[in-house]
Design a protein that fits this description.
Blueprint lengths: L9 H15 L3 H8 L3 H13 L6 E5 L5 H10 L4 E6 L2 H13 L6 E3 L12 E7 L8 H10 L1 E12 L7 H20 L2 H13 L3 H10 L2 E9 L4 E8 L1
Bound molecules: S-adenosylmethionine.
The site of S-adenosylmethionine has 20 residues, from helix 1.
EC number: 2.1.1.163, 2.1.1.201
Protein name: Bifunctional demethylmenaquinone methyltransferase/2-methoxy-6-polyprenyl-1,4-benzoquinol methylase UbiE
Enzyme class: transferase
């Protein structure tokens, strides 16, 4: 196909995603900085600002990986609030836990699949998922689960790659399909994982589609903030 897309059967996707994150866990943070040229820090900082977390809030970070968002939220919730750091992948979660502990932050963690969350209905004020939804096999099911665990009036924030503005498409494709896999090979000796990254970005629903999916999952109002010309979008949905 045009960009070497493959259609990955659903049952293979979960295994493949696990393989990707097992193999990148060690070098995940440095690769993030390198590949996004540091921009992921700005996208996450923006997310934290929009989240406007208050003392006492209960926050659930899904697919939290090495813990960037959890670490940012931890000091904001105070002693009566909580931040729960979760991921489906033990290597990523472990990497995150070590990193947080090294900074003196100990958070409750859960090894869990976003498509089947082990939390009661309406238990969080804020649910976040940053660069995680794209990897999930059944995104609608995952969005329904995230909505289920939110209290009425609570918010779901999805930070994810999205559809870049038309004039940037050519250079962006060049970067993603030629430069990115080479960086993956040179820096992490892992071209395949970074080729998967570029492909999964192109397969992911665009801004309008994701907004519709979030409404379908039961969120009443959804706002979309384009960041870096749509390379990334932050979707914020409110549970009615
Ligand atoms: N949120 C972190 C960040 O923004 O740096 C990590 C993002 S990393 C690109 C994607 C994470 O999604 C991985 O840690 C992976 O294990 C996790 N993941 C993939 N599928 C998942 C699922 N079904 N449920 C929960 N986490 C999942």
């Amino acid at each position: 196909t045009h960009f070497g897309f493959e259609t990955v059967p659903a049952e293979h996707k979960a295994r493949r995603v696990r393989g990707v994150f097992d193999s990148v866990a060690q070098r995940y943070d440095i690769m993030n900085d390198l590949m996004s040229m540091g921009l992921h820090r700005i996208w996450k900082a923006y997310t934290v600002r929009v989240a406007n977390v208050q003392l006492g809030d209960r926050v659930l970070d899904i697919a939290g990986g090495t813990g960037d968002l959890a670490l940012a939220f931890a000091p904001l919730v105070g002693e009566h609030g909580m931040v729960v750091h979760t991921d489906i992948n033990a290597a990523m979660l472990g990497q995150g836990r070590n990193r947080l502990v090294n900074q003196g932050v100990v958070l409750p963690t859960a090894l869990c699949d976003a498509q089947h969350l082990p939390f009661p209905d309406e238990s969080f004020d804020l649910v976040t998922v940053s660069f995680g939804l794209r990897n999930m096999t059944d995104k609608d099911q995952a969005l329904r689960e995230m909505t289920r665990v939110l209290r009425p009036g609570g918010r779901l924030m999805v930070l994810e790659f999205s559809q870049v503005a038309q004039p940037l498409r050519k250079p962006y494709d060049l970067y993603s399909f030629h430069i990115l896999p080479r960086l993956g090979r040179w820096v992490a000796n892992d071209e395949a994982s970074y080729r998967y990254l570029a492909e999964s970005i192109r397969m992911h629903p665009d801004q309008a589609t994701l907004k519709a999916m979030m409404k379908q999952a039961g969120l009443g109002h959804v706002d979309c903030h384009n960041l870096s010309a749509g390379v990334v979008a932050l979707h914020v949905g409110i549970k009615c």
